[in-house]
Amino acid sequence: MSKKIILVANTAFTIINFRKELIESLHQKGYEVLVICPEICTFYNGNDVKSRFKALGVRFIPVYINRNGVNPFQDIKLLMQLTKVYKFEKPDIVLNFTIKPTIYSSLAAMIAGVKKLSSNITGLGYLFTDNSFRARLLSLIVRFQYKISLKCNDIIFFQNPDDLDLFCKLKLVSDRKKTTIINGSGVNISKFIFDSEKTKIPMSFIFIGRLLKDKGIIEYVAAAEIIKRKYPESTFRILGGFDDNPNCIPKAYLEKVVKEGIIDYIPSKANVAPYLAESEVFVLPSYREGTPRSVLEAMATGLPIITTDAPGCRETVLDGVNGYLVEVKNVDALCDAIERLIINSELKELMGNRSLEIARTKYDINLVNQSILDQLL
């Protein structure tokens, strides 16, 4: 009888796009894989989600997860649903991704007596970067929930040392020996490839991600406006979708900067590889990340990176080697880094080659998944 593992996430997209190779590795090791997540997904309809999971050879159990809301009745219902599933399925391992699954799935697994429980802290979100009253209040609630739920875990994966240190400082993690730092979620270097023959859009910069303020969208647009005055031929693109996250930028703001010719906007795409391949530089002025998957994909495509000297981001860039690290919220520093790469085209090629080298040696998804499996199985 094969062993059983359940993966839990707050979106189907996370599993389908970022955990496909992990699922394949688990199958190779003889595990039956179940996935629990919402059926509604940004890129796929319900039937498409089911068919994609079927194609991956996993059983899919849909649940409703209110990612950003605080509705105790919905959250209690989620806890009860997960507990019921775990008691019936009797999994050997449960592996959680993102905040709410980590909290409620961990509690459910403890109640159901699951043999081994693990959570992957993929990032801290706006609750740890936003200073609004609502964010601070919710942060207190989430910290309390983390403190209880993480005690149930056998292994806790972190994607950067800053997040681990913060969790220990806040005493959300009771035993540091139960923690492991991994290199993000990795990147499939056979999907995101460097093509030296690909024609690039001259002086093109691209941002890919959810349209959240704490991703540095406002600073990116401000820098684009300044640079375009001096270099009118330069192109600044934003690829991403709006979100129900309270930190999301207003649609009217994006429409305004697009109309003014500052930004070229591309709505969310399930496959961003072609847009990376035709760009010259990737920019992510984020305030904080776990390890930004978008940066890893850009590195694997051979792009120089401009990002911030912030937790999660700073791990991806050797400053002056494969890109530049700039101060968070510092538009002048961001403009300076952008201009340096406009002026020196040879530098773009050198830095892009180093990005590719780092992606292959440090962030290859097979290496990252093996580091997870070594701890988990």
Describe the model.
This protein has two domains: 3-181, Glycogen Phosphorylase B (Rossmann fold), CATH 3.40.50; 204-362, Rossmann fold (3-Layer(aba) Sandwich). Helix 2 packs across helix 14 (365-376), helix 4 (72-89) crosses helix 5 (99-112) and helix 5 packs parallel to helix 6. It is built from 14 helices and 13 strands. With 377 residues, it is of the alpha/beta class. It has a seven-stranded parallel sheet, sandwiched between helices. The protein has a six-stranded parallel sheet with strand order 10-9-8-11-12-13, with helices on both faces.
Topology:
Blueprint: E1 3-8, H1 12-18, H2 20-28, E2 31-37, H3 46-55, E3 59-62, H4 72-89, E4 93-97, H5 99-112, E5 116-121, H6 133-149, E6 155-158, H7 161-169, E7 179-181, E8 204-208, H8 217-230, E9 235-239, H9 251-259, E10 264-266, H10 273-277, E11 281-284, H11 293-300, E12 305-308, E13 323-326, H12 331-343, H13 345-362, H14 365-376
Parallel strand pairs: 1-2, 1-4, 2-3, 4-5, 5-6, 6-7, 8-9, 8-11, 9-10, 11-12, 12-13
Q: Which stretches of 5+ consecutive residues score pLDDT under 50?
A: none
Give the biggest beta sheet: 7 strands, parallel
CATH superfamily of the largest domain: Glycogen Phosphorylase B
| Beta-strand residue fraction | 15-25%
Give me the CATH architecture of the largest domain, please: 3-Layer(aba) Sandwich
What is the succession of H and E elements? EHHEHEHEHEHEHEEHEHEHEHEEHHH
Based on CA atoms alone, the radius of gyration comes out at 21 Å
Distance between the termini: 16 Å
In the CATH hierarchy, what is the class of the largest domain? Alpha Beta
The helix-and-strand class reads alpha/beta
**What is the count of distinct domains?**
2
Average per-residue pLDDT, rounded, comes to: 93
